[in-house]
Write a structure and sequence with these properties.
It is built from 14 helices and 16 strands. It is of the alpha/beta class. The mean pLDDT is 96.
Length: 364
Amino acid sequence: MRIERIETAEINIPLVTPFKTSLRTVESVNDIVVRVITEDGCEGFGEAPPTAVITGDTKGSVRCAIEEFIGPSIVGMDIENLDGIMKKLHGCILKNTSAKAAVDMAVYDLFAKSCGKPLYKVLGGNRSRIETDLTISVNGIDEMVSDSLKAVQQGFGVIKIKVGKEGTKDIDRIRAIRQAVGPDIRLRIDANQGWKPKEAVRIIQTLEDLGIEMDLVEQPVDAHDFEGMKFVTARVHTPILADESVFSVQDAICLIRERAADLINIKLMKTGGIYGALKICGIAEDYGVECMIGCMLESKIAVSAAAHLAAGKGIITRADLDGPSLCKEDPYTGGPVFEGSQIIMNESCGLGITRVPAFEASLN
């Protein structure tokens, strides 16, 4: 089962509503999808979003990395030589983590198919169903409250609130949402690097003093400010989740040893795919630090790969995999079933996705 060729295409799926964070506003999922084809015609699929403000990747850089570096380095290799493929994939070009992730998940898709199992069972088979939160974009208070109530009505028991654009005004946002949704809905607060360390402490402590319980606060300060993260973590009771600060195993080890965060957010686009994510899971297991699995603005292909990882590994105790729920349509056939807050894993082989229309269009 040797790799014969790798193809790329582009997708554009409109969002239900614009996705707004402290870093950017996006109105559609405009990603690069990947198809890895073996000599016997078996297909594996992957996806990469061009998240320049976080990973530095653009659509052009993703396609260039895949077509000129990653593809030539692994074409001709046997899918069963998974470790060898991953060493070639990660060694042929520095950084470019999103491009690597897209090909990585396609290869894992094929590897699981060669094993005759769904990917989550190959990765550990911890559970067959996971719960995801739903993201509430940063907007005016009334709109965020309305969006939060809609999420609850849709059956979401965990909502992720985007903040970080207006400092202490975020207190009013979070307080209003808590009052609206009641005490039983879990709130995850994501500042997307939007606060300064002392400001973050002041905001989080104020919310704690008001009796507003939060499941976690995600990336309160700049990604490179490990000392600032440590400053915040040491001074609040609410768990602090490191997201943009963690791309590599080395990042995870440094944060954990320095006690700069309580939790680690794994995203395949930061780790370069499942291969790197599994290494972070191993480190987290050694140190007893729980992980969350997250996604960028991704469609069902990439989110399915992340879901399989989350279902496979017990150290991943939280999921932020709402990408498909944010999209107006699902153009794909097969894969995990996304039913509101529940993600039900497929029992078909690999990722389970059998049809990606973007590649059919590329043949016309």
